[in-house]
Amino acid sequence: MAKVQFVTQENAARIEAPPCGRGQIQSRAYFKEATDPLHLQVHQLTADAVLNVSSLATDTLVYVWTGAVVVQGVRLGERSSLIMERGASTELSAVDGVATLLFFTPKERSGEVVPHDGAAPHLRLLPSERVPRNADLGGQGLAGGALHADASDISRHLWLHENDFHVGDTPVAVHSHSEDEIIFVRDGELRVGNRHYGPGAALAVAAHTKYGFQVGPNGLSFVNFRASAPTYTSDDGKHSMDEAEFWRSQTGRPEYMDFPTG
Hints:
mainly beta, Jelly Rolls, 11-stranded antiparallel β-sheet, 1 helix, 3% helix, globular
């Protein structure tokens, strides 16, 4: 893939929606090519729509961008998440109006053999009220964050965090990460040079690619997905940080509601 790809909500490709028990679902794919190491689909469910998931081909992390869904009798509102293990089946039912869900997956590897220990695939639910958060990461009053998946065994080695930049027009220094990543703008604005990206825009950044950005005038909130534990490196290479260690020290680790399926 290109080192950096930008896709807006309007430019994301319309795709066939997953099976729907009732109601309607509109679906778009942001990154779906064979050369893309990470994939993102966005599904918008009408009020009371039911999205059916059956025998997933790969581990999947779902983030509730807007609205709310019920899974296994648990309400997952905005800023909640769900990890679905490969092979899992379940239903996600929209409640209280339209719901928009982000489905993040690592690219399925050809010929991958998944061990079977006889256990049923699991769902790991993280309602928003259980998400570990810190409103002041680093203690400088500039940004807060939340940790949904910390690349541990329990999270299937997937990673997802939120960043909330409170101060508008703040520059974020050029840096790189050791893993491929997808950044999805959930609110506010992210600026790269003379390009401005608002809610619904996504960036895919290849591992070890140097980049920086500026927070929009009214702040910025995004989620960041990766397929394994990342390391941060400054532009000059003099500062390197284990991000999993940093985030766990700042927010604590996510504690999921665990449901076997099947």
